[in-house]
Amino acid sequence: MRDLVPVDPAVPAPRPSVVALGPEAPRPVELFAFMAEAERRFSSLRLRIVERVWNARGEDAEITEVALRHPGYARVVRRRAAGGVHQDYDVWVTDGHVVKTLDARSGTASVRPLPSRVTGATDPGLPDFSRVWVSQTQLPPDTLAETFIHPRGFCRNILATGLVTMEGSATLAPDREAILLRCDHPRTSHLLTDRPDRWLEVGVDRATGLILLLTDHIGDRLTRHAEVDDMEIDPSLPDETFTVHLSDDVRMIY
Predict the structure, then answer these.
(1) Would you place residue 1 in the very low, low, confident or very high pLDDT band (cuts 50, 70, 90)?
(2) Domain at 72, CATH number
(3) Could you tell me if residue 219 is left (phi over 0), alpha (psi between -120 and 50 degrees) or otherwise beta?
(4) Does 205 fall in a domain?
(5) Residue range 212-248, pLDDT digits in tens
(6) Is residue 20 part of a domain?
(7) Domain count for the chain
Protein backbone atom coordinates (compact mmCIF):
# COMPACT_ATOMS: atom_id res chain seq x y z
CA MET A 1 0.00 0.00 0.00
CA ARG A 2 3.03 2.24 -0.15
CA ASP A 3 1.73 3.89 -3.34
CA LEU A 4 -1.25 5.29 -1.42
CA VAL A 5 0.86 7.13 1.18
CA PRO A 6 0.75 10.97 0.70
CA VAL A 7 3.85 13.10 0.32
CA ASP A 8 6.08 13.00 3.41
CA PRO A 9 8.16 16.21 3.89
CA ALA A 10 10.61 14.31 6.10
CA VAL A 11 11.72 12.02 3.26
CA PRO A 12 14.90 13.35 1.59
CA ALA A 13 14.38 14.65 -1.93
CA PRO A 14 15.79 12.32 -4.62
CA ARG A 15 18.92 13.52 -6.36
CA PRO A 16 19.24 13.57 -10.14
CA SER A 17 21.48 10.90 -11.63
CA VAL A 18 22.89 13.53 -14.01
CA VAL A 19 23.55 16.88 -12.33
CA ALA A 20 24.49 18.82 -15.47
CA LEU A 21 25.05 18.32 -19.18
CA GLY A 22 28.55 18.40 -20.60
CA PRO A 23 29.84 21.23 -22.78
CA GLU A 24 29.26 19.27 -25.98
CA ALA A 25 25.85 18.90 -27.62
CA PRO A 26 24.01 15.92 -26.08
CA ARG A 27 22.49 13.13 -28.14
CA PRO A 28 18.66 13.00 -28.02
CA VAL A 29 18.64 9.93 -25.77
CA GLU A 30 20.99 11.68 -23.34
CA LEU A 31 18.90 14.84 -23.40
CA PHE A 32 15.68 12.89 -22.77
CA ALA A 33 17.26 11.17 -19.74
CA PHE A 34 18.36 14.58 -18.44
CA MET A 35 14.88 16.06 -18.95
CA ALA A 36 13.23 13.14 -17.11
CA GLU A 37 14.74 14.37 -13.83
CA ALA A 38 14.15 18.09 -14.36
CA GLU A 39 12.16 18.62 -11.15
CA ARG A 40 15.01 17.17 -9.07
CA ARG A 41 17.27 20.12 -9.88
CA PHE A 42 15.43 22.77 -7.84
CA SER A 43 13.58 23.02 -4.53
CA SER A 44 11.11 25.70 -5.64
CA LEU A 45 10.09 27.26 -8.92
CA ARG A 46 8.09 30.12 -10.30
CA LEU A 47 7.35 30.45 -14.02
CA ARG A 48 4.86 31.86 -16.51
CA ILE A 49 3.90 30.27 -19.83
CA VAL A 50 2.26 32.25 -22.61
CA GLU A 51 0.42 30.06 -25.12
CA ARG A 52 -1.13 31.11 -28.43
CA VAL A 53 -3.19 28.73 -30.55
CA TRP A 54 -4.45 29.37 -34.08
CA ASN A 55 -7.61 27.54 -35.11
CA ALA A 56 -10.88 28.07 -37.02
CA ARG A 57 -11.93 30.78 -34.53
CA GLY A 58 -8.74 32.73 -35.02
CA GLU A 59 -6.16 33.21 -32.28
CA ASP A 60 -6.71 32.08 -28.69
CA ALA A 61 -4.30 33.10 -25.93
CA GLU A 62 -3.81 31.68 -22.46
CA ILE A 63 -1.38 32.48 -19.65
CA THR A 64 -0.33 29.81 -17.14
CA GLU A 65 1.35 30.91 -13.91
CA VAL A 66 3.00 28.23 -11.76
CA ALA A 67 4.40 28.38 -8.23
CA LEU A 68 5.90 25.13 -6.90
CA ARG A 69 7.69 24.14 -3.71
CA HIS A 70 8.93 20.62 -3.04
CA PRO A 71 7.62 18.41 -1.75
CA GLY A 72 3.95 18.56 -2.60
CA TYR A 73 3.06 22.27 -2.80
CA ALA A 74 1.90 23.70 -6.13
CA ARG A 75 -0.35 26.45 -7.43
CA VAL A 76 -1.35 26.72 -11.09
CA VAL A 77 -3.41 29.66 -12.37
CA ARG A 78 -4.63 29.68 -15.97
CA ARG A 79 -5.97 32.90 -17.46
CA ARG A 80 -7.64 33.24 -20.84
CA ALA A 81 -6.05 36.42 -22.15
CA ALA A 82 -8.23 36.93 -25.23
CA GLY A 83 -10.81 39.68 -24.80
CA GLY A 84 -9.41 40.85 -21.47
CA VAL A 85 -12.10 39.14 -19.38
CA HIS A 86 -10.69 39.26 -15.86
CA GLN A 87 -13.06 36.62 -14.48
CA ASP A 88 -12.05 33.99 -17.05
CA TYR A 89 -9.47 32.04 -15.03
CA ASP A 90 -9.13 28.91 -12.94
CA VAL A 91 -6.92 27.97 -9.98
CA TRP A 92 -5.51 24.55 -9.04
CA VAL A 93 -3.72 24.24 -5.67
CA THR A 94 -2.33 21.27 -3.75
CA ASP A 95 -0.38 20.69 -0.55
CA GLY A 96 0.55 17.13 -1.48
CA HIS A 97 -2.57 15.67 0.14
CA VAL A 98 -5.59 17.64 -1.09
CA VAL A 99 -6.39 19.46 -4.34
CA LYS A 100 -8.44 22.67 -4.23
CA THR A 101 -9.82 24.19 -7.41
CA LEU A 102 -11.64 27.37 -8.34
CA ASP A 103 -13.30 28.14 -11.67
CA ALA A 104 -13.99 31.87 -11.63
CA ARG A 105 -16.07 31.84 -14.81
CA SER A 106 -18.63 29.36 -13.45
CA GLY A 107 -18.24 30.43 -9.81
CA THR A 108 -17.55 26.87 -8.63
CA ALA A 109 -14.88 25.33 -6.41
CA SER A 110 -13.94 21.88 -5.16
CA VAL A 111 -11.83 20.17 -2.50
CA ARG A 112 -10.70 16.63 -3.25
CA PRO A 113 -7.88 14.27 -2.24
CA LEU A 114 -5.05 13.77 -4.69
CA PRO A 115 -5.73 10.77 -6.93
CA SER A 116 -4.11 7.60 -5.62
CA ARG A 117 -1.79 5.56 -7.78
CA VAL A 118 -2.47 1.91 -8.49
CA THR A 119 -0.80 -0.27 -5.87
CA GLY A 120 2.46 -1.66 -7.21
CA ALA A 121 2.66 0.73 -10.17
CA THR A 122 5.97 2.13 -8.88
CA ASP A 123 7.60 -1.29 -8.30
CA PRO A 124 11.24 -1.01 -9.44
CA GLY A 125 10.97 -4.53 -10.81
CA LEU A 126 8.65 -3.33 -13.57
CA PRO A 127 10.14 -2.28 -16.93
CA ASP A 128 10.63 1.44 -17.32
CA PHE A 129 7.88 1.83 -19.95
CA SER A 130 5.22 0.43 -17.60
CA ARG A 131 6.40 1.84 -14.26
CA VAL A 132 4.70 4.99 -12.95
CA TRP A 133 7.09 7.90 -12.38
CA VAL A 134 6.63 9.40 -8.92
CA SER A 135 6.82 13.20 -8.99
CA GLN A 136 7.95 15.09 -5.91
CA THR A 137 5.12 17.53 -6.50
CA GLN A 138 2.07 16.70 -8.58
CA LEU A 139 0.65 19.10 -11.13
CA PRO A 140 -2.69 19.08 -13.00
CA PRO A 141 -2.47 16.36 -15.67
CA ASP A 142 -2.66 17.08 -19.39
CA THR A 143 -1.64 20.72 -18.97
CA LEU A 144 1.29 22.80 -20.17
CA ALA A 145 2.47 23.11 -16.57
CA GLU A 146 2.75 19.32 -16.34
CA THR A 147 4.46 19.05 -19.73
CA PHE A 148 7.00 21.83 -19.14
CA ILE A 149 7.95 20.90 -15.55
CA HIS A 150 7.57 17.09 -15.75
CA PRO A 151 8.76 16.43 -19.32
CA ARG A 152 9.52 12.72 -18.83
CA GLY A 153 6.19 11.56 -20.24
CA PHE A 154 6.38 14.04 -23.11
CA CYS A 155 9.84 12.73 -24.07
CA ARG A 156 8.78 9.09 -23.88
CA ASN A 157 5.32 9.33 -25.45
CA ILE A 158 5.80 12.13 -27.99
CA LEU A 159 9.37 13.11 -28.81
CA ALA A 160 10.74 9.56 -28.84
CA THR A 161 8.11 8.53 -31.42
CA GLY A 162 9.30 10.96 -34.10
CA LEU A 163 12.47 11.84 -35.95
CA VAL A 164 14.46 14.15 -33.66
CA THR A 165 17.21 16.48 -34.85
CA MET A 166 19.21 19.02 -32.87
CA GLU A 167 18.92 22.57 -34.22
CA GLY A 168 21.34 24.47 -31.98
CA SER A 169 20.74 26.77 -29.05
CA ALA A 170 18.91 29.98 -28.17
CA THR A 171 18.33 32.32 -25.24
CA LEU A 172 14.84 31.97 -23.74
CA ALA A 173 12.84 32.83 -20.61
CA PRO A 174 14.44 35.49 -21.09
CA ASP A 175 18.07 34.79 -20.06
CA ARG A 176 18.27 30.98 -20.01
CA GLU A 177 20.39 28.99 -22.44
CA ALA A 178 18.16 26.49 -24.22
CA ILE A 179 18.85 23.55 -26.52
CA LEU A 180 16.59 23.57 -29.58
CA LEU A 181 15.41 20.37 -31.18
CA ARG A 182 12.94 19.46 -33.91
CA CYS A 183 10.68 16.41 -33.90
CA ASP A 184 9.10 15.38 -37.21
CA HIS A 185 5.83 13.41 -37.32
CA PRO A 186 5.51 12.52 -33.64
CA ARG A 187 2.81 10.04 -32.69
CA THR A 188 -0.52 11.58 -31.68
CA SER A 189 -3.89 10.29 -30.57
CA HIS A 190 -5.71 13.10 -32.40
CA LEU A 191 -6.45 11.93 -35.94
CA LEU A 192 -6.86 15.46 -37.31
CA THR A 193 -3.24 16.31 -36.53
CA ASP A 194 -1.71 12.88 -37.23
CA ARG A 195 -0.17 14.07 -40.49
CA PRO A 196 3.22 13.37 -42.06
CA ASP A 197 3.94 17.12 -42.33
CA ARG A 198 3.38 17.80 -38.62
CA TRP A 199 6.45 18.72 -36.59
CA LEU A 200 7.37 20.21 -33.23
CA GLU A 201 10.08 22.58 -32.09
CA VAL A 202 11.13 22.28 -28.45
CA GLY A 203 13.46 24.45 -26.38
CA VAL A 204 15.02 22.74 -23.33
CA ASP A 205 16.69 24.61 -20.48
CA ARG A 206 20.30 23.43 -20.49
CA ALA A 207 20.72 23.86 -16.73
CA THR A 208 17.57 22.10 -15.47
CA GLY A 209 15.99 20.11 -18.32
CA LEU A 210 12.72 22.05 -18.11
CA ILE A 211 10.90 22.80 -21.34
CA LEU A 212 10.95 26.51 -22.18
CA LEU A 213 9.47 26.47 -25.68
CA LEU A 214 6.99 24.25 -27.50
CA THR A 215 5.69 25.04 -30.98
CA ASP A 216 3.44 22.90 -33.16
CA HIS A 217 3.53 23.14 -36.96
CA ILE A 218 1.68 21.59 -39.87
CA GLY A 219 3.91 22.12 -42.86
CA ASP A 220 4.81 25.82 -42.92
CA ARG A 221 1.84 26.82 -40.76
CA LEU A 222 2.32 27.52 -37.06
CA THR A 223 -0.65 26.19 -35.06
CA ARG A 224 0.58 26.61 -31.48
CA HIS A 225 3.30 28.60 -29.74
CA ALA A 226 3.89 28.15 -26.00
CA GLU A 227 6.87 29.80 -24.35
CA VAL A 228 8.10 30.56 -20.84
CA ASP A 229 8.57 34.32 -20.66
CA ASP A 230 9.49 34.50 -16.96
CA MET A 231 11.15 31.95 -14.68
CA GLU A 232 12.80 31.99 -11.26
CA ILE A 233 14.65 29.01 -9.79
CA ASP A 234 14.51 28.46 -6.01
CA PRO A 235 12.51 31.57 -5.05
CA SER A 236 11.17 32.02 -1.53
CA LEU A 237 7.53 30.91 -1.57
CA PRO A 238 5.61 31.35 1.73
CA ASP A 239 2.67 29.13 2.67
CA GLU A 240 0.26 31.90 1.70
CA THR A 241 1.23 31.30 -1.94
CA PHE A 242 -0.58 27.97 -1.85
CA THR A 243 -3.96 29.10 -0.59
CA VAL A 244 -7.23 29.72 -2.42
CA HIS A 245 -9.47 32.55 -1.21
CA LEU A 246 -13.13 31.85 -1.93
CA SER A 247 -15.92 34.42 -1.84
CA ASP A 248 -19.27 33.71 -0.20
CA ASP A 249 -21.07 33.29 -3.52
CA VAL A 250 -18.83 30.44 -4.76
CA ARG A 251 -20.69 27.14 -5.19
CA MET A 252 -18.89 24.06 -3.89
CA ILE A 253 -19.04 20.91 -6.02
CA TYR A 254 -17.56 17.49 -5.53
Answers:
(1) very low
(2) 2.50.20.10
(3) left
(4) yes
(5) 999 999 999 999 999 999 999 999 999 999 998 888 8
(6) no
(7) 1
